[in-house]
Amino acid sequence: MLRAEKNLRFYPESGSQQCLYLYLVKWVTMPSPDAAANVMLSLACGDALGRPVEFQSADAIADRHGTVTEMLGHGTHGQPAGTVTDDTDLALCIARSLAERETFDGQDVAERFHGWYEDGPFDIGLMTADALREFGRGTSWRDAGRNVWQHRQEGSNAGNGSVMRCPPYAIAFADDSETLIRVSKQSSAITHYDSRCTYGCAILNETIAGYLRGENTPLATALDYIGGDAPDELVEALRVVPDLVDSDQLNTTGYVVHTLQTALYDALTAESIEEAIVTAVNRGGDTDTVGAVTGAVAGARFGDESLPDRWLDVLEYRDDLELLAKALATTAIEA
To answer: Is 168 a residue whose pLDDT tops 90?
Structure first.
């Protein structure tokens, strides 16, 4: 899909009240609206499929459910089938901000996050909660996440709470890698300042955007483009995906490096979006977030492939997710 971007240039004529306005038109390739919708819907499906079994081990899931392939009610958090968690809620905050403001506005994104937090969600990560409390006390959106991060010990300072919500940027800025990387890092830092988180968002989003642009190996391309600046631990964990990974050794903790390695492996090795999400969720652990990140990547990789109707029929916010994704794919979002 092509979209014309018009950039206005103003040239005053010396010694005169007259002036010249020049429109520079640039044609850019935009993602398919249907593929964009699949990114958001697949993120939410992974979140909702994983929500009822969050924090359970793979063995516990297998003992109780066999293989989870259907949207379950109750379970962890005690919500109806198809209910999403903070992963999708915060992704929607970002998508709505981009669609309504038609630009990346960090203050607006942070205010939407804080408004959601004030409503008392049933699921929220510790760093996200701490950073949003800090923001609510008047700290700038640019500093709140950093202030929290500075007081966290290693092992509790690099969670997956920003990678789970960042894919709307991959749709909005699919045609502009430089901007995509910048806003991905800035948005992450609102709550997750650690460089493993900020660069994790950048690599994830550039991978999703690469698939939306039609690339065959966008993870490798993203690592080549970004990896020189990213933390070694993150890059080394992702360089081996998928060919040099032992699937049985993958981790599903809330650590951002674990989440990205597992989610990318499952998304890149599956034969369908459904298979990717089901595999990720049944690994246990942080099932909603690993499922959500896996879903977003698989949704981009498989493009226009349909998700199961039995999932979509009960998915919370289905219409909002689809409409917002298509708006981001067809609207000129300013850098």
So the answer is: yes
